[in-house]
Specification:
This is Gamma-glutamylcyclotransferase family protein. InterPro entries: AIG2-like_dom (IPR009288), GGCT-like (IPR013024), GGCT-like_sf (IPR036568). The chain has one domain: Roll (Hypothetical upf0131 protein ytfp). The N and C termini lie far apart (45 Å). The protein has 4 helices and 5 strands, in the order E-H-E-E-H-E-E-H-H. 23% of the residues lie in helices and 39% in strands. The protein is globular, with a radius of gyration of 14 Å.
Length: 145
Amino acid sequence: MSVTDGEPLPFFVYGTLRPGEHHHDLFLRGRTRSEQPARMRGIVLYDGPGYPYAVEEPAGVVRGELVTALPEAYAELLGALDRLEEYVPGDPRNLYERMVRDAARVDGTAARAWVYLAAPAVAARLRSHGRLVPGGDWRERRRGP
């Protein structure tokens, strides 16, 4: 089965869209049916300029939330998040690529979800010169020691 841009999948959010972070209320409040703690394997987080980048890494695990949009808000939310992440399908200048990956809820059940991953050129730069977010949890990193 192929996944199209319009398929109403939940979103896995790991940075500024998480509850309590500055983009959550601006983009998600009133547009979601549910927001559940979740994790995603196969990615790690790198520090960015005020926000993180998720980069594919087989041994990695990132903590975040699985956000399910209200059906009537889905198309608007998808467009808003694409604009926030400056994602345009097929554009080589993208900083992020929107991909489908498996997320795991706290109860262990899996869900296919959209996730914004660092675009290939950004990911390569981060792997060679970036700073990993310890433990794969942006919220914990921001609290500091």
